[in-house]
Amino acid sequence: MAKDWQWKVALAAISVAAVTLIYSQRRRRWKAVGKLSKICIYPLKSGRFKEISSAECTPLGLRVPSEDGAVMLRDRVFMIYDEEALEMVSARKYPTLIFITCQPTNRKTVILSHPDKKEIEFPIPSGKFGEVTVRMWFNEQMKIMDCGDEVAEWISEVATGSRKGLRLSYWPEEETERRDVLAKRPLEVPVFTKMSNNYSGAYSDFASYLLVCQSSVDDLNEKIGDPEYKAHPLDFRPNFVVEGTIPYEEDKWDRVKIGEVEFTNFRPCTRCIFTTIGHTTGEKNPKNEPLKTLRTYRTMKMVYDTDIEGSIPVMGVFVGLEAVGKVKEGDVVYVS
């Protein structure tokens, strides 16, 4: 009887090991689907994108290593907020914000510039992070470190013409605490089962990384059929643009591998009126494109058969970082 019991245990262990081996081999079976054509970083949330040729992927988002002791360029670590309401503001309300560029210097300062205003240089703040919180989407309270009065006046003048009302916040590099995004979206957890707080970024809406496929945008433009208007991948403010794919195949990807980095595709990205503001013009599309056309064939209900934000259009996918590493323009994109 003892030998029989031991034999059964050994057989069970072998079976588990075999299943694990098969699963791991399947996970390592990668298929090339395209290549990385653009890498974009947005140091200021709602601000101007910066196209880069390579970057490090960190848990809180893209990062460009510094040179000569300069502050690192990091994704969405600055955010503008309303001073009285203590809530985030974006280019949805102030479209001119998309023209603000952010450039670190080797003096531990940052330069903000705008086409209609003289640039301003201000020091990276060193105050207490989290003494003040600002309300973001879904009533999420975001910790901030305020950047001071001088840059607050500059931001306010750019956005409103007044010298008061808006302020600038900063997420310090040494702060590694992750946001509890799941607590604010309890209805989504059973639907998008791969969601994780570990995928949250600094001041990004939901996740550290957003991927959009060029072919999907091209198909959207064919459906729009307006020679005077063409949607551009950067209108959707992605970190990664991938070319060479089948339109919308990203909807069904599981794991994604780019360069040294692996990601998990965990949720589609719902789109708002921000996408109707041209990334080069700052002007709202008079026909409400691309949302108008997206609503005819790509809402959450149509594509993913869920009533979670069911009537809202989707384009692109959120991907969560599994391990830090580097990516560069031209990297082959693999999926499993």
Automatic annotation (TrEMBL):
- Signal sequence residues: none
What Pfam families is this protein classified in? MOSC, MOSC_N
Q: Which SUPFAM superfamilies match?
A: MOSC N-terminal domain-like, PK beta-barrel domain-like
Matching PROSITE patterns, A to Z? Answer: MOSC
InterPro entries named among the record's database cross-references? MoCF_Sase_C, MOCOS_middle, Pyrv_Knase-like_insert_dom_sf
**Which parts of the sequence belong to the MOSC domain?**
184-336
> What terms describe the molecular function in GO for this protein?
catalytic activity; molybdenum ion binding; pyridoxal phosphate binding
For this protein, the record's PANTHER family field holds:
MITOCHONDRIAL AMIDOXIME REDUCING COMPONENT 1, MOLYBDOPTERIN COFACTOR SULFURASE MOSC
Supply the name of the protein: Molybdopterin cofactor sulfurase
